[in-house]
Design a protein that fits this description.
heterodimer, A: 425 residues, FAD/NAD(P)-binding domain, 2 domains, 5-stranded parallel β-sheet, 4-stranded parallel β-sheet, 12 helices, globular, B: 101 residues, mainly alpha, Cytochrome Bc1 Complex, Chain D, domain 2
Chain lengths: 425, 101
């Protein structure tokens, strides 16, 4: 019933610039106002839904997202390994529109005026906001791999680190590769999106080779000193399951590529592959820097852990992979979903003229497939610590799986269904 | 709007300004940290293999969580998660889920 007013409003189809004045008529201490959410991934979609759920329709929400549908990075390595299809990891935004009364605009935010509180859209027009949620993900630092600066090189040497067409294209490259070929995967220095993701990918490509192209090899070129996440469990999987297929090389930063010959260029040597897959170094999406948000290490947005609000720009709450993480916190979809709930609760309080929750808690879990059935996890719980003003990992909590197991293979797929429903259902 | 939440919000007006006072929606916020796996408000996706928590008896939820914490109840992950929350927080979470229809 609370959504009726909202639907009527949607039918009215008001011009974007008039939104703010039409929105937010509820009085008293009930939260009202207009929140624009930029980015419909794990962070942004969750924030949009929970703002509506928890304000009981009091806050009007507009979600700006480039793509027509959500495509999940978690589980996308199973598409690359040939176990799942893109359709299996794609979820529409229909429920956000129809069930939650969120205005979903397929467009790109090209600029933010933090003073005027407006967002510029690529297709023209402006949105005004009372508070902005920015969940923009990462952009790649192509300048660190000069050979990938151009579009034609990027079309040949894929990252497949944003799920979608690249996921399918990488799968096709692996299918076209002859038996006896080499797949080389380059991992940037941490921090990057999804710490265990590259190692999972190495496992699932190796699993595909083992079954269908047994003379082929997987070479992992890791810029890091050692496996960044679930080290013992991944190394055990490579030893037990993929001996002679996976070759892991640490301290092997890819400095450049020769796209034509699919060759990775390292400091002292080269690695020629049949399929070269480069996960480039990353930073918060360019929009964050262009907006003037304070960055740490010139890469990640500095935020306040009670609200997720930018450290230097009031009214803009930043979520997900774009932020400078709290200690031991990974850049993951699960984490972005938790950031979103923290931000939604804070925004609702702030718009009602109240203090944010002084004791927020967030938690993370990352499941990784080491073959199509067996999974390993890493988990952590983070509680707000007033002394450091950070959400600190709780000692003695969290940890990794005792061993890879099929029970968690089922749980991981159930996790995906539940988190997709939690954000988009 | 559910009357309960409105009451909670109005109640907050009285304590606004004292930053250290507990948020009246603390139980809701804490419970939401479990929703990634157990579903929004504890309504897990049917057939996805994860247990719903909505509407379960509060004492039973607390007992299970205590058994995860102590290791009495074998688990793939809940023993590691439960240890991240204080007993007071788990009490709030269990109460919140028990109250979901």
């Amino acid at each position: 019933m609370m959504l009726m007013k909202r639907r009527d409003f949607l039918k009215a189809g008001a011009a974007a610039t008039a939104l703010a004045s039409l929105y937010g008529c509820a009085g008293g201490t009930r939260a009202s106002g207009h929140v624009v959410v930029v980015g419909g991934g794990f962070g942004g979609a969750t924030a949009a839904k929970y703002l509506r759920l928890w304000s009981e329709g009091g806050i009007q929400v507009t979600l700006v997202e480039r793509h027509a549908e959500f495509v999940s990075c978690p589980i996308s390595n199973l598409v690359i390994g040939g176990v799942k299809t893109l359709a299996d990891i794609t979820v529409p935004y229909d429920n956000l529109r129809n069930r939650w009364g969120i205005r979903v605009i397929q467009d790109e935010a090209t600029g933010i005026d933090a003073g005027k509180r407006t967002v510029k859209l690529a297709k023209g027009g402006e949105l005004s906001y009372d508070r902005l949620v920015l969940s923009p993900g990462v952009d790649f630092l192509w300048d660190q791999i000069p050979g990938l600066a151009k579009a034609d090189a990027q079309a040949r040497i894929l990252h497949a680190w944003k799920a979608g067409p690249q996921t399918v294209a990488l799968r096709q490259q692996l299918e076209s590769m002859a038996d006896g070929g080499v797949y080389a995967l380059s991992i940037p220095k941490a921090p990057y999106r999804c710490p265990p993701g590259p190692y999972e990918r190495a496992c699932l490509v190796a699993s595909y080779f083992k079954q269908h192209k047994p003379r082929s090899k997987v070479i992992v070129l890791d810029a890091n000193e050692e496996v960044v996440s679930k080290k013992g469990l991944f190394i055990k999987a490579w030893d037990d399951l993929y001996k002679g297929i996976v070759e892991y090389r640490h301290n092997s930063e890819v400095k450049d590529v020769d796209a034509g010959s699919a060759t990775a260029i390292l400091e002292f040597d080269k690695c020629k592959a049949d399929v070269l897959n480069v996960v480039p170094p990353q930073r918060a999406a360019d929009l964050a820097a262009r907006t003037g948000l304070k960055l740490i290490n010139n890469r990640w947005v500095d935020i306040n852990w009670l609200t997720m609000e930018s450290a230097n720009t009031p009214g803009i709450h930043v979520l997900g992979d774009a932020i400078f993480p709290a200690p031991t916190m990974p850049k993951s979809g699960h984490m972005a979903n938790q950031h979103a709930k923290l931000a939604a609760a804070a925004i609702i309080n702030l718009l009602a003229g109240q203090e944010p929750n002084p004791a927020p808690v967030v938690m993370n879990t990352c499941y990784s497939f080491v073959d199509p059935k067996n999974v390993i996890h890493v988990a952590s719980v983070h509680q707000y610590d007033p002394a450091t003003r950070l959400v600190q990992p709780v000692k003695g909590a969290g940890g990794v799986s005792a061993a890879r197991n099929e029970v968690e293979g089922k749980v991981a797929l159930g996790w995906a269904k539940n988190i997709w429903a939690d954000m988009l259902g | 709007m559910k009357p309960l939440t409105l009451a909670a919000l109005l109640g907050l007006a009285a304590v606004a300004g004292t930053a250290q006072a507990a948020d009246p929606n603390l139980a809701r916020n804490l419970a939401a940290t479990c929703a990634n796996c157990h579903g929004t408000n504890g309504r897990a996706v049917e057939g996805a293999g994860l247990d719903p928590l909505a509407g379960l008896d509060k004492a039973k939820i607390l007992q299970k969580l205590a058994d995860f914490k102590s290791g009495v109840k074998p688990a793939t992950i809940m023993h590691q998660i439960a240890k991240g929350y204080t007993d007071e927080q788990l009490d709030l979470i269990a109460g919140y889920y028990a109250a979901q229809k």
